Structures are given as C-alpha cells and as structure tokens.
Amino acid sequence: MNKYILSIKLILILCLSLQAQTSDIQIKVLTEAENEPLMGATVYFEALEKGAVTNFDGIAEFTEIPDGQHQIIISFLGFETFETTIQIPSNNELMFKLKEGGNQLDAVVLQSTRSTRTVRKIPTRIEFIGAEELGEKAIMNPTNISMVLRESTGIQMQQTSLSSGSTNIRIQGLDGRYTQLLRDGFPLYGGFSSGLSILQIPPLDLQQFEIIKGSSSTLYGGGAIAGLVNMVSKTPDEEPALDIMLTQTQALGSTANVFYSKRNEKFGVSLYGSGHYQKAYDPEDDGFSNLPKTTSISFNPKLFYYPSDKTTLWFGLNGTYDDRIGGDITKIENGEDGIHQYTEENNSKRLSSQLVYQTQLDSISSLEFKNSVSFFDRNLTVPDFNFDGKQTNTFTEITYNTASEKTDWIVGANLYTSNFDENDNAPLQRDQKDVTFGAFANNIFDISDNWILETGLRADYNTDFGFFPLPRISLLYKNNSGFSSRIGGGLGYKIPDIFTEEAEYINFENVLAINKSTVDAERSYGVNFDLNYQTRLSDEIGFSINQLFYVTAINDGLLLNSTDNGLFQFENATDEIFSKGAETNIKFTYKDFRWFLNYALIDTKLNYLPGNPQKPLTAKHNAGSVLMYESEKWRIGYETFYTGKQFLSNGTETTDFVTMGLLVMRNFKLGSVFVNFENFTDRRQSRFSPLVLPPHENPVFPEIYAPTDGFIFSVGLIIKPFGNEHHD
C-alpha cells in the first residue's frame, strides 16, 4: 500500500513540476504591407493578464511564460487587431503581421519630427507618402523622385533648363533654395548641388516621404523656410528582400533598378544600384532636345550592426555619376557642323557618407549621433563658357530624446559646414565657405486628451552672418469624432549663396560672388492653420478632408540684378516676398477603390516691385484628381491635373492646361508587369509657345512653364524572387 501512495505522490510532483516550467520568449510584429518592424504595438496574454510593447525592431519580450497554449492579442492604432493561439515552447519563430485598418495614418511614426509619436499626436502638420504610393510613382518615373513631389498639393517642380533638364522644387510658390531636402534626417544637396538634385535621387530604395510645409528651421536649421522633404530609406529585415525593376520608354529611355536587403541577429546589409540611359529626344522635331542624352549610375550600400536590442549602428555610402548633354540634336549625334553648334553639357559626380549611432538609454530616453560628408563635382559647359567647381559639405549632430506619459523632449546640437571651390582658371572666383553652429530644444506636451502643445527654440550662429534665434509653436486639438485642427508658426533664415534659380537659368555666367559685407541673410516668418475631418459615410464608404491655410513672408530676399558693366550681382530686396494661399485635400474610399481630389491656391506676391506682381512661373490655381483601384492582382490608376495661368518675367500671361496619366499593373507571385501612359494627351509647352527662339547657332530659350517632354509611354517588369505581397 505504501508503494502505491509513494508512486502517486511522485506522479503528482512530476506533473506539478512539468506544469511549472516556463520560458522566456520574443514575439516579433511586422506590418503586412511593407514587411517592416512595427514599433509600439501591444502584445497581450489574455489569461495571464500580461502585456508588453514592441521595441524599435518590432520585438516584444516576455519572461517566465508557462509552457502550453496561450491566447494572445496584438493591437496597434490604425491596424486591425490580431488574435491567435501560440504554443510555448515553440519550434518556430513567433512572428506575426498586422494589416492596416481604416485609418492607417494614425499609426505612422514620422522621423522628421524627431519624435516617436504617431501622426495623430503631433501638433506639426506633416504630409506622409507611404511605400504603396511611392511604389506607384516609382513605376511612373523610376529615374528620380520628381513624380512623387510634383503630384503633391501645393508643390511645383520648376524646370530651369531645357537642355539639361535641371529642376527645382517649389513649395507654396517659393523658390527651391527655401526647401530643405533630407535623407534619413541628413541635409542633402544644398548650394551648388541643388540644381540637379531632384534628377539624381532614384525612388526604389525609399520607404516613405515626409513633407512639412512652412518654416521648419527650428528642427533642421537654415534653408527650411518653405518647408522640408525627408526621404526615409528602407532598412533590412530578417526576411531577405530583392527587387529588380526594368523599364523602357518609347522616348528611348532605359532604366534598371536593383535593391537587396537582409539582416541576422547582429548584422544587416542593404544594397541599391540604379542605371539609366536616355537618348536625346526631340518630340516636336525642331532640332533641339526636350530630353537630354543622359547616362546616370547610382550605387548605395549600407552596413548595419546591432550589438544589442537597444542599439543600432549603421554606415552608408551614396555615389552618383551623371552625364547629360542637350541642345542641338545634330551636334549631339554627329558633332558640330555649321550652324549646329549649341549644346549644354553637365557632368557631375556625387559621393556622400552617412554614419548613425542610435541607442536606447532606458525605457524612456535615447541618444543619437549622426555624421555625414558630401562631395559634389560639377562641370557645366555651353559654347564659349565653362562653369566648373567642387563643393564639400559636412554635417554632425547629437540629439537626446526623452518621453514621459505626457511630455516629449528633444534637445540637440549640430555643426554644418559648406565649402564651394570654383576652378582656379575661372575669370570670376566665387569661392564661398560657411560654418554654422546650432543648438535646439523641442517639447511636445499633452495638455489634455484633446489638446497638445509643441514649442521649440533653435539658436544658430554663422561665422559670417551672425546669430539667428528661431522659435516655433504649434497647437493641436483632436477629438474622438474624427475632427482635428492644428495651428502653428515659426521663424526661418537662409544663408545667401550664388546658386539661385535666376543664376542657374543663365548658367552662372557673369554672376559675381556674394559680397558678405553688403548682403544680409534672408529671414522669414510663417503661420499654418488646418482643419481635418474623417468619417465613414457608410459601412463601405470612407471620407476624409483636410483644409490648410498658410502665410509665409521673406524679408531681405536675395535678388540677382544687372550692373552697368554687363555683370550680375546679388542684392537684398527692399520689401517682402509674401506668399499666402490654401490647400484642399479630399479622399473617398470604397472597397478596392480610392479617389483623391485636391486644389491649391498659391498667391505669391513680390512686394519689392511696383504693383506687387504675382511671382513669375507660379500658377495661382492648381487642381488634381487621382482614382485608384487596387486588388491582390491589379493596380490601376487614372490621374488628371490642372495647372492654371502663369506670368512670365516680362509680364506675359501663359495659357492653362490639363495633363492626364494612366497606370496599369498586374501582380504575380514573383513580381509584376506594368504599362504607364504619362501625359497621354501630350500637353507640352511647344503646343502653346516656342521652346527655342532663333538664331539656331546661338538660340534663346524662353522660360519653362509647362511640360517639355509631352507624352511618355513606358513598359516595365518588377521581379521579386522572394515573393510579391500582392499576387494571385
């Protein structure tokens, strides 16, 4: 009898010991659409009443989870809640993907704010372009990011040269030099390199765009008077990614893009390469190219190191070689012959490095260090004139971020240097060096559940132009019925240099250097106010609207004026450049359909000229419509854009015009095929007025106010050897 009792006791002890066994586990959460780690998602064990939040790598960690089956709930604002049963211990990696829900923008965390807050909890107004829309624009134009920016409300891509295609971005009617271009938070392509910058940034390795309109100088320093565009790169994941895109146009343009990424526990890598060749293209047969002959190669490798779950170190290089020659088709193809002698050739080489160290100090604070060095070499040649120079920029920054339940703080300091060195043989030496030190602090405070206040202050000191205090303030109101509103404003400044749109237009010929003793830095102030509302009109129809009003004024604007001896010199304007306007964005959703409507009123006045005229080459009225259908197999998009009348510098009023585009893409398991009809109604400036004026051997090029290349038809293939997210 005692033997039986002893056996029963042993069995009970064994069962209790087995039941008491526990495991330490990690659960990884990714986004279904982009396959990217989802930071801030909640993973909850229902029976255990135990939960955790995913970290920067999308991982939630648990200790002492009893072995056996458990019901877990994974949730994140803007995504559909996911419930499942898991077995502990598990032979497989515990990895789950969340699908975006009805209001995906609420869940987006934006890098340009330097905060880990989602869109819905940031007082600064930010426009977000995600991976899906970026993919559509990459198909429409795989060579550069101009398509992404051009179709955003209130943004204009201003072409400054027919022969080279040089293009600048204009936000709310203000010149390109007032917009700060960033990549992963690094200032890019300022000064000498800005004229060709938009043409030299391919979109395939980008994950998202973040656009802030209005002064953003408090966070990013000088140059962000009109706003900033931050391009966020794709990062490697444990699942390998390989995208190959091949595109061919009827205008004899060929493009190949390749992106690969992969990471393991300690290391990750991403590799991006792009090659583009364009034959000189003359659609109206006037003997001059509308697209220059172009050979462009880009390469961007990055190496990531993860010494712990809390720390990331990565280093990247970006190299671009670009050679473009436009002008007289006969000279381009056969060489100079009699009257066939005008060409414009741009040969440029770009190399930049990026180094980032990020570490989580504790549960509420983090530290980040950044450094970049950029080198740009450009040789611009037209008949009887050559402009040749090199520019080296450096950027170093350290920031500290801490967050409590109701308050976020970001404090930091940086050093920015720029050194332009013109060829020593040039008759006018326009070398310029600038050194700027900066320190800043930014605070976001939850006054209540409905009101959030953001305040910031930057102090910059430039060794030549002095001290710039830059305060900003924004206030957000939101409620649970889908309504929110933001109002904010701040100050900005821009250090003067010779690289303006006016100087680019005349190829910098006879342009004098900046006289730092007589020319002051440009200064600005601006205010934005917007209203947002989103709701569901029915179970299947979603609706949202955003209405923005803005004002930006620039004092001491930099002007290029002629002198008595045929040269050009820079001077400060005697009155303001004053830009005001409104933007309306409306979105409807129905099952697999999305319909976007937008309108922009841009009223930019030059108050330093008699009569306060409208800024040349700025359409006062712009509107657009984009209808998208997307299923697992198909993606179809139809676009219509209206550009209103503009004024040329001589006061002549231009005609308005409408452009249309159509994209059709079919998804398969291992990739996609697509056709794109860009500007298929063939609207181009030569249909309204000449693009080139005689004499043929020394032509005059009027200002550009409409598309120059006209209808472009392209076909392409996207290959995804590791599988496509959308397939049959």
From TrEMBL:
Assigned protein family: Belongs to the TonB-dependent receptor family.
Entries under InterPro entries matching the protein: Beta-barrel_TonB, Beta-barrel_TonB_sf, CarboxyPept-like_regulatory, Plug_dom, Plug_dom_sf, TonB-dep_rcpt-like
SUPFAM superfamilies reported for this sequence: Carboxypeptidase regulatory domain-like, Porins
Keywords: Cell outer membrane, Membrane, Receptor, Signal, TonB box, Transmembrane, Transmembrane beta strand, Transport
Superkingdom to which the source organism belongs: Bacteria
Annotated compartments: Cell outer membrane
The protein's name: TonB-dependent receptor
First and last residue of the signal peptide: 1-22
Domain TonB-dependent receptor plug: 119-227
Entry's transmembrane regions: none
Membrane topology type: Multi-pass membrane protein
Ranges for domain TonB-dependent receptor-like beta-barrel: 299-679
